């Protein structure tokens, strides 16, 4: 998965070693000719934090290209959606087999996600380095 993912954006603000870039994330059908008449087409504005060594090379309002690798995107999807789904399903079936109570199994499965998300929050600095964006020159 060596694909490069890129979005064009505009620099919103610049802090010490971080450039905040506003990008427009569009769904796959937003570019369709009839997107204006369809409810499925959607787009959202997002602010992406890009850590860089020399933030003085950029100016607020400058058009830039923000990139990341497909591997980074896959890792983000795994941590954000894949692992929580696996934890949810495993805990659901284990508690259901042990107790036979569907309500307890469902509550336990949902409750098992709290420690996972707490761990993600505790390791957010380390994850920020692994899920990095870059500004393409």
Protein described:
With 137 residues, this protein is an alpha+beta fold. The protein contains 3 helices and 5 strands. It has helices at 70-99, 102-122, 124-130, and strands at 4-15, 18-26, 43-51, 63-69, 134-136. The protein has a 5-stranded antiparallel beta sheet with strand order 3-2-1-4-5. α1 (70-99) runs antiparallel to α2. The longest helix is centred in the middle third of the chain and has 30 residues, at 70-99. The mean pLDDT is 81.
What's the arrangement of secondary structure elements?
Blueprint: E1 4-15, E2 18-26, E3 43-51, E4 63-69, H1 70-99, H2 102-122, H3 124-130, E5 134-136
Antiparallel strand pairs: 1-2, 1-4, 2-3, 4-5
Helix pairs in contact: 1-2
Q: C-alpha Rg, in Å?
A: 20 Å
How are the strands of the largest sheet arranged?
3-2-1-4-5
**How many angstroms does the end-to-end distance come to?**
23 Å
Mean pLDDT: 81
Shape estimate: elongated
């Amino acid at each position: 998965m060596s694909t490069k993912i890129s979005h064009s954006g505009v620099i919103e603000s610049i802090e010490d070693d971080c450039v905040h870039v506003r990008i427009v994330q569009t769904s796959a059908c937003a570019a369709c000719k009839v997107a204006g008449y369809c409810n499925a087409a959607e787009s959202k504005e997002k602010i992406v934090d890009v850590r860089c060594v020399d933030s003085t090379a950029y100016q607020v309002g400058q058009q830039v290209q923000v990139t990341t690798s497909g591997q980074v995107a896959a890792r983000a999807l795994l941590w954000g959606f894949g692992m929580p789904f696996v934890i949810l399903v495993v805990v659901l079936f284990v508690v259901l087999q042990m107790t036979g109570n569907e309500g307890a199994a469902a509550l336990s499965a949902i409750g098992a996600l709290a420690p996972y998300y707490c761990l993600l929050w505790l390791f957010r600095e380390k994850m920020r380095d692994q899920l990095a964006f870059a500004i393409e020159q």
